[in-house]
Design brief:
This protein is an alpha/beta fold. Helix content is about 45%, strand content about 15%. Strands 1, 2, 3, 4, 5, 6, 7, 8 and 9 form a nine-stranded parallel beta sheet that branches.
């Protein structure tokens, strides 16, 4: 079996001075935790904030790439890059964890296909088209509906990604964008991290209609472990806690990650969030099961969003515990061959 996480925001944390070769306290992901949890592969996403202008976005993406390259090289013998399914399997045979790359927010591509090609050459194998705001490619699920779906350049970008063999990721996209991507794309479409709208109404979640449509494309949906995607009740709990008002604590840490005082303040806030009553592993698997019921088991995977979320589902506080989701699937009667599909084989098929 290969356990693959289709979305982890590790590069952002690397820029916040986390050494992934160490077993860090207050860290959702590092290489020792991945090893301890039996995680065989993870897509490390180069997250580009929507606040950055086009040139800044590109520069920031390459800065993230350079730091990821440095830390992967520093962990020779533990991890190695992979760009194909066969490389993932070969790394597993060698006892190595595979690091794959995604670009989260195509704003970094500007209007330049050569930048897309450069990211491909550097190992990026999926692009999440947008993030928290509309960009030059398409509309976000939290945007203003600028294009009504894809922009003209966005349609060209999807076609070019199909041509060169790069996966199109519709996480964070508006429903209208997802529908248009599915019309334009000749290749399977992925949704790397999120949950099911039938169980929780968050804008980031997928309706049953869109789940079915992605499955019909041959694609895969990765279910997340973020409590706000899992449960409307948790969203209410979080709102009532008053902790959302302290979000500037994280921003201060991001701006000055070398400050022990600012790091300690952010860690204290994370502890307060973790003390809230949170949905657990069982509800994560409820979303996985709902996606299986709607899509078919050949079209469902796991995309945690570790290192990009401030708090996790209870019991899944770091990536060393990710295998608990598979234990619950086994406990609910799924055969080994079925669990293997969800664990990673479905995403490997697309690679």
């Amino acid at each position: 079996m290969i356990l693959l996480d289709s979305h982890c925001d590790a590069p952002s944390q690397m820029l916040r001075l986390r050494d992934y070769c160490k077993d860090n306290p207050h860290a959702q992901v590092d290489f020792p935790k991945m090893k301890r949890g039996g995680v065989d592969a993870s897509f490390f996403a180069l997250y580009i904030p929507a606040s950055l202008g086009p040139k800044e976005a590109s520069e920031y993406a390459f800065k993230l790439l350079d730091e990821t390259d440095r830390q992967v090289a520093a962990a020779t013998g533990t991890v190695a890059y992979a760009t194909t399914a066969e490389e993932v399997k070969e790394n597993q045979r060698k006892g190595l964890i595979s690091i794959l790359l995604g670009l989260e927010n195509a704003s970094a591509i500007q209007h330049d296909m050569e930048l897309l090609h450069e990211f491909y050459k550097r190992g990026v194998r999926y692009v999440t088209l947008t993030h928290s705001a509309d960009n030059q490619i398409c509309d976000s699920c939290t945007g203003r509906g600028t294009w009504g779906g894809l922009s003209p350049f966005g349609r060209d970008l999807v076609r070019e990604m199909n041509r060169i063999g790069m996966l199109v990721d519709v996480a964070h996209c508006a429903d209208s964008t997802i529908r248009e991507v599915l019309e334009v794309s000749d290749s399977p479409v992925v949704y790397t991290h999120g949950c099911c709208r039938a169980l929780a109404s968050h804008k980031r979640n997928l309706s049953d209609e869109l789940l079915r449509s992605i499955a019909r494309s041959g694609g895969v949906v990765g279910m997340s472990i973020y409590p706000c995607f899992l449960s409307d009740d948790f969203c209410t709990t979080l709102e009532n806690s008053g902790l959302l008002k302290k979000s500037k604590v994280e921003e201060a840490f991001i701006q000055d990650p070398a400050s022990e005082k600012k790091r300690a303040a952010w860690e204290k806030l994370q502890d307060s969030l973790a003390a809230l009553p949170r949905p657990g592993v069982s509800l994560v698997v409820d979303h996985i099961e709902h996606a299986i019921d709607v899509c078919g088991i050949e079209h469902v995977g796991i995309g945690t969003d570790y290192d990009g979320i401030e708090v996790t589902a209870a019991g899944l506080e770091d990536i060393s515990r990710l295998g608990l989701t598979l234990d619950v699937l086994h406990g609910r009667g799924y055969r080994n061959s079925e669990v293997e599909l969800v664990a990673g084989e479905n995403f490997l098929r697309l690679l």
